Hints:
This protein has 189 residues and is an alpha/beta fold. Helices cover 22% and strands 28% of the residues. The strands form 4 sheets. A 7-stranded mixed beta sheet has the order 1-4-7-12-15-17-18. It has a 5-stranded parallel beta sheet with strand order 2-5-8-13-16. The model has no long low-confidence stretch (mean pLDDT 94).
Amino acid sequence: MxxxxxxxxxxxxxxxPDSALNKEIHLVKKNNERLLAExxxxxxxxxxxxxxxxxxxxxxxDASTTVSQxxxxxxxxxxxxxxxxxxxxxxxxxxxxxxxxxxxxxIGPDARLITVNHLxxxxxxxxxxxxxxxxxxxxxxxxxxTILQGITIGENAIVAADSTVTRDVPANVIVAGSPAKExxxxxxx
Length: 189
């Protein structure tokens, strides 16, 4: 798929506003913005939402996945969703760098997953750098949490509501705060 090759070409690159790469990004973005507007302008059943999301991301989504309206993305093509995923209302995927959500993940309302950052050099500030986010199996991202670029959330981990995740989260722990810190391990029975 063209989207995958684009995603690979974006990694470890400064994406400058006047570059050919930036123009290619905006062509995909323009089409997906129309589809996202169609999703969010009227009530849709989950089946209808998944139909639209499959067009946006360019991949099949398992029928066990549930997405609540409204759903937001700034790009759309670099999202991968596993089975039995639940995405609550007002979640924002800034997915240019790639967001992979494995099976059985829960994402609370108003959560943000952000794979893009602006360049720190003041002369290139409108440029971008991207890094993927991976949310592993059975993780739970709480309401209003923010996951920043390049982060992996470990299997069974919980990100508490209102947290900002700036470092990888190990498996089987709960993190909270801004920046998020481990507050305890999860007992496994």
